[in-house]
Design brief:
about 160 residues; alpha+beta; Immunoglobulin-like; four-stranded antiparallel sheet; 13 strands
């Protein structure tokens, strides 16, 4: 009986350790990601069917956000670069964004353009006021050296 109980005890202990480790790690990530970057959006008035907006990122040291630039597209960091989407009634709208130039940072085997500190992205979207409010989605995944944190997705309702 001891030979059957012993493996079961080991499996139970391993499972309990795994659960506590997962809880502790998600707690640390949840606390840290909020300190990695703050995102805010300011929207202008709709004039002749066009609305302007400005997305502000405050990226806290030592974190960075991979820039949305053509030179970054072919890199291993494509999936975690800054993304912005605009929707009306659940359908995507063609928004035009003007992204600033990122700062060259050596990561892994090459150099990647990153945003650090305070960054503003300006944009416009053609919209119909009769469609009601639009939703802007900002997605980023802060990194620091080789550490990558949980993807941050923020939703903003713009009237």
């Amino acid at each position: 009986m001891g030979s059957i109980l012993s493996p079961l005890c080991r499996i139970s202990v391993a499972f309990i350790f795994f659960v506590f480790a997962a809880i502790a790690q998600s707690y640390v990530v949840a606390q840290t990601k909020e300190k990695a970057v703050d995102i805010t959006v300011r929207a202008g008035e709709v004039i002749d069917g066009v609305q302007t907006f400005c997305v502000m990122l405050s990226i806290y040291d030592p974190w960075m956000v991979i820039a949305k630039e053509e030179s970054t597209i072919g890199s291993e960091y494509k999936d975690i670069q800054l993304k912005m989407l605009v929707f009306a009634k659940g359908k995507p709208l063609d928004a035009v964004f003007t992204f600033p130039t990122g700062k060259p940072v050596k990561l892994g085997k090459g150099t990647v353009l990153c945003y650090v500190g305070d960054v503003s992205v300006k944009g416009t979207v053609r919209r119909n006021l009769e469609d009601g409010p639009i939703t802007m989605v900002v997605i980023c995944q802060p990194i620091s050296g080789i550490r990558t944190y949980v993807r941050i997705t923020k939703y903003f309702e713009i009237r």
